[in-house]
Structure formats: C-alpha cells, structure tokens
Fold this protein.
Amino acid sequence: MGSTERREREQRMRRRHILAAARKVLAEKGIRGATMEEIAQEADYKPATLYLYFQSKDELLFSLSGSLLKGVTEEIQALADRTDLDALEKARRLPVILDRIYQLDPPVLLSLFRLQASQDFSRMSPEAMQALNDLAQTGIRAMARVFEEGVRRGVFKEHNSAAMADAVWSLFTGIVLWEESKRFFNPDKRFFRTTLEFALGLMTDSLVK
Amino acid sequence: MGSTERREREQRMRRRHILAAARKVLAEKGIRGATMEEIAQEADYKPATLYLYFQSKDELLFSLSGSLLKGVTEEIQALADRTDLDALEKARRLPVILDRIYQLDPPVLLSLFRLQASQDFSRMSPEAMQALNDLAQTGIRAMARVFEEGVRRGVFKEHNSAAMADAVWSLFTGIVLWEESKRFFNPDKRFFRTTLEFALGLMTDSLVK
Amino acid sequence: MGSTERREREQRMRRRHILAAARKVLAEKGIRGATMEEIAQEADYKPATLYLYFQSKDELLFSLSGSLLKGVTEEIQALADRTDLDALEKARRLPVILDRIYQLDPPVLLSLFRLQASQDFSRMSPEAMQALNDLAQTGIRAMARVFEEGVRRGVFKEHNSAAMADAVWSLFTGIVLWEESKRFFNPDKRFFRTTLEFALGLMTDSLVK
Amino acid sequence: MGSTERREREQRMRRRHILAAARKVLAEKGIRGATMEEIAQEADYKPATLYLYFQSKDELLFSLSGSLLKGVTEEIQALADRTDLDALEKARRLPVILDRIYQLDPPVLLSLFRLQASQDFSRMSPEAMQALNDLAQTGIRAMARVFEEGVRRGVFKEHNSAAMADAVWSLFTGIVLWEESKRFFNPDKRFFRTTLEFALGLMTDSLVK
DNA sequence: TATGAATGAGGATTCATTCAT
DNA sequence: GATGAATGAATCCTCATTCAT
C-alpha cells in the first residue's frame, strides 16, 4: 500500500505549512514575538499540535533558518561551479546573488543572522547552532573557491581567499543587520543593494590584476 | 572636608563595579543569562541593590553599551579631526582603531552589536535603542568625513562617502559577529584583525586615485 | 455532539470556580492578601492557570466586582421600572433591595466599595475603574428616576432627585464600610439593615407631600 | 537645664514638619504614592531619618489620620456641649461642621476614610486601626448626644439616636468617598456640600416633632 | 541628629512544553 | 491527528526597614 507514503507526504506538507506560518510570524512580529502560540494561530493549529511535527521550538526555528541558509549556500555553490563564467564574472555576480536572497525574504534572513549573532538569546541547542554554522561555512568555502580560481587562472592577484570569503560574508551579514537597525527608526530608507554592490565592487576591483 | 566628593567617587566606583560584573556575566552567559539576579551575584550584591545605582535593567545594559560605543565614536572623531595626517593615512588607520576597540573588550562589543542586531529581543526601551543608534551614526559620519576629505583633497576618487562609511561599519559589525559565531565552536581561531585589515585595505586601495 | 457546548460550559464553570476562590480569599485576607498565588491555591490551581481564564489580575478582580455591581444595578432598574408600585412604595423598597444585596455577599460588596474608594491602591486600569463607575452611575440614575417619578405624580415634594439618589448611594456605601470597620473589632454586632432602613426611612418621609 | 525641654520641643516640631510633608504627599499622590521615600523628600530628609521620629510608616500614617480625626471629634463634641443652642440648631449645624472639616483638607480626610475603609490595604497595626476607630466612635457618640438631647427636650421624636449618629457618619464617609470617586473622572464637579446638606436636612426634618 | 548603603520579602506575568482524551 | 487543560521555571521590580558611621 502507498498509504505510508501518502501519510509521509502529508506530514511533510503540514511541516511546510507550519514553517510558512512561522516565517510569516517572524516577519511580522520579530523573533521575540514568534511564540509557539502565535505561530500555531497563524497556521490554524493549537500550540500542542506543533509538537507533533517538531520536537521543540528550537527545531522549528532551526528548520526555518536551515532551509534558507541551504538555499543561499546552494546558490553560491552553483555559481562557483559554473564553467561558462570566469572568476571575475563570478565575483561580479556575488552581490547580485546576495541581494536576490535578501530581497527574497528579508525578515527570515534577518532572523537567521540575528539567531546566529546571538546564540544565547534563543534556546536553540548547540548542535542546531553548529549545523547552521556548518551550512554557512559551506557557502563561504564556495565563495573562497571563486577567488582561488581567479588566482589560479591569473585573473586575481595572489591573496588569502578564505579571508576574502569571510569578509564578503561578514559584509553581507553586517549590512543586513545594520540596514535593519537603521530602518527601525527610518522605515523608508533602504540602501542594502547600493551599499553591498559598492563595497563588494571596491574589494573585487582591488583584486583584479 | 571632601567627604561629599569621596562619597560620590565611591558611588561611581560601585556603579563601575556593577558594570564590570554585568560585563563579565554578559561575556560568560550571554544576554539571556544576564539576569539581574546573576549580575547582582557576580557583583556580590542582592538584586535590589542594583536598583540603587541603575533605574532599571535597561539603563544598566544601556550604560554598558553606551560607554563603549561612545569610546568608539570618540576615537573615530579624533582620527577624523587630526590635521597631521592626510585622508589616506587616516583611512589606513581605521582598521587599527577598530581592532583596538575590539581587543579592548570583545564581549561587550559583541553584546553591543547583538543588542543592536536584535532590538526586539531585548526589552530595552526604544529611546535607549535610538540613543545607541545615534551614537553609532555619529561615528559613521566621522568616518564619512575622512573619505569626503580625501575626495576634496584629490586623494580619493569621487564616490558616495556615506555608503563607504556604512560599509565599513557593517564590515566591522559583521566580522565581530561572524568571528564570534565561529569561535563558539572553534575557540582558538581568531582572524578578526587579519580579515578586517585585509577587507578594509582592499576597499581603500580601490578608492585611491 | 454538543461537545463544544459542554466544553464551553465547563470553561465557564471553571471561571466561576476561580471567581469563587477569589471571593473567598478576598473575604478572608482582604485585598492586599488577594494575590494571584493565594487565589490560585484556593482554587486548587497554579498561578499560571488563572491566566487561562483571565487576562490579568485586574480583569479577575473587575469581573468579580462588576458582576455584583451589575446585579445591584439591574435590581434597582427593575424596581424603578415596575408599574404596579407607586413611587413611594418603590422608595420604601430601596432599603430592602440594598439589604438583600448586602446579605448576598458582604465581602465582595465590601471589596467593591473598597476598590472604588481607593482607585490608587489597586492596580486596576483606569478603564476598568471607569466601567465600574459607570455601572454604579447607572444604578444611581435608576434610583433618581424613582424620585423624579414621585415628584411628577405629586407623591413627593419638588427636590433635586439626582442629589437624593447620590445621597442614597453614599449612605449605602458608607454604612457598608463603616459597619465592616466596626465589625473588625466587634465581630458580632450587625446593624446594617437597621441603620439603613432607619436613615433611608427618614429621608423618604421628608420627601412625602 | 531647659535643654531637655527644648530638645523635646524641637523634636515635636520636626514630627509635625514630617506630618505636614506626609499630608502634602498624600494629597498629591494618593496613598499608593505616599512612600517613605516620597515623604522624606518632601520633608527634606532622607527616608532613614523618618524612623527617628516615627517607629514605622504605620505610626506615621496613624499619627496623621489620628490628628485629623481628633479634630473632627473635638469639633463635634464642642458642638454637642454648647449650651447656647438647642438640639435642633445643633443638628442643623452638623453639616456645616462636617463640610468645614472636609474643606479643610479633603485629601487627608479622604485618605483617612480610605484607610478606615480598607484596613487590609495598609500595613497599619490592628492596634492603630482600633485607636482610629475609637476616635471615630467618640465623635459619633457626641453626635448621638445631640439627638438624645433633642428627644429629652421634646424637640425630636423618640428614636434610636445611636443609629441616627451612625447614619450621619456613614453618610459623611460615603459622600466623601463617592464624590472623590466621581471626581476621578469628572474633576470639576463638586457636590459635597449640596448633597450632604440636602440629605442631612431631610433626616433632621423627619425627626422634628 | 542624619544618612548612605544594603536588603528581605514579596508579586504579577510569560511561555515552552506535557499529557490525557 | 488534534487539542484543551495545566504547569514549571523564570525574571523584573518595589518598598519598608535596618544599621554602621
């Protein structure tokens, strides 16, 4: 019988449904406002029900952040793996990709960074935090590969590509956080893309031979 | 008799003593662990006593972050105001200053950024957050002045100096946060200065005419 | 199935159960002693549970006072609306009604008046206090109607019926409070009804043409 | 030496000074706002100093209420003792006296009644409450004497003069409290005197033979 | 006489989580 | 599969009061 299959499929769907609700709550009420009660309400469930699909609030949040981060990482890896672009072109695309990810779902990305920025705020388990961290590292390593490739191919000057990748990631994180911090008081102004492209452009320019 | 003076001095010392305790707790247990109870214990007081020196937990935390941020801002302003250095030299010193500040008290700087990164986590009043934000903005504007000066004097290419300053601050924030995040799992590795100098160096190089 | 119905009915019962517990605590320990902890204990719950049935302590206390006051008001209104009695007969019944209400639940009535007597003692929200006040005013206006009617029908002399109603209510309040104050030291003596009937009788007599 | 005397006199003066401060605070901030801290500040002392002149907050408040209540009582006694007025004239003067007392210092009278209305709110000792109660009773008995005299002299009908006196006192208390309760929402309207005179007038009229 | 410093004793809420039905 | 009901565990803050100086 395919009933087991179907059940599993439905279960996955309900998990996703809850995650979508959590994303919405996170976006609207911030991490502090994202209580199990609130998420359940948004998902049209009662809090107790959430525990049928997630072991704990932590797992739920992790699942949420993880899926986003996984997307980021995969996009970067895909870029790094492309053979139709040279290293410089790839580097030039980095801000575009990062911006697209940010535009996709600013609040969740923000929450992700906040979560990562303050592990002790959430009650997330060290293991989950570690997993999140590993995911980010994977994306960063993919970025590093782009710069290494550039050096290898003589497009970029010799440099510490790991530091470069770390810097890009930090810049990404920092701008997201700082822009949001400013927006809290000046809701209209948005310079994410401008700032990111400008800064990343400068850095890349300097690397070009 | 200077007994009033002495009393006031001692009072200030006790305030500082409590701030130091808070700093330690913050460093060791993170913001979530930094309860009034815990801080009091570290300071060898009972919780009620803390309220003799600070109106609320908010004020205590704000005092902590604020003093640090004020220091950062003042250092940057002092640099911007120097007349014995040209704009390029000033820009070159920025990472040195930022690194010194970071080395001064990593946990508090971290807490500050975490606080700023997640206003909705803490219960800090919007006013206090705003004040913190303003302080940061002042520092950023001072950085922008350095780059403007460079343009005016023909040292730097024409560019959006506000965006540049924002980028530097974001980079600073991002690296602090990301380094800490990594350190949580790899306590030994520290690349703060390396990464910051490298990234800022690249950005500045690109600006030079 | 009427399971939803039953559930709601049971929920209402538990609310009432808690209110009853609060009433008891209030009667035995006074308002100061009526902590959520104490009420919960009396109701055989933990404090957190009370918050399932009431949004706050205020709402709980308001609910308690409000229901009683509503009863008072309704009784007075009903009396005022009767067509089978003339104004004098209605006035003669006022002390009977007020006494019955008092006998019904002296401690809660007492708490109500205490609450009303000392808004700044309790932490009850101004809105709730206002609502309580309005409720009382409604009852008072109903009393005034009785006296107005008497004047209109030529049973009572011309007079300020609003002042009369205020006086009756004040007398009611004052006697409840004062009797209770005396009882605190002389638990046996109870003159509530005697005093009320006597005083109200005198006042009414004077109004009769 | 008269130094002991002088010391005692000064001590009494300082006690009075503190009481005056307490009265003011009570008037401005209500009972809940009347903390030792606040009273001390008003008296230009530090909280600890208050304890040199009063054993406890209770004693302070008691002292305050007591002195007022004593004044009330004495006035009533004086009235009752006058030989130049007949019982009816004395009765007619009662509302005038009560109004004068109320006008003298509404907030303190209010606080007194509130205190009396809710012994369990304050932490005042039973002994102090008892003493307050006794004082009130003395005043009430003096009022009763007026009515008894009236009966004896054939001015008033036969009646329970104790109940009458209780009623007057209750009316007094009730109007003070209820007027204040209304004023909380309608600060302008003041009907104290009107209502009291009207009600007391009615009651007295009925007693006249 | 005055007070700076410190504290004991509470008290209201919030929220993730469990479990019988 | 869903949930109503209940709770354990925290956490901030207030105020009268004491006592050494």
Chain D has nine helices and no strands. Chains D and A do not touch (no CB pair under 8 Å). The first helix of chain D runs from residue 3 to 33. Residues 35-37, 47-48, 51, 56-57, 123 of chain D lie near DNA strand F (CB under 10 Å from a C1').
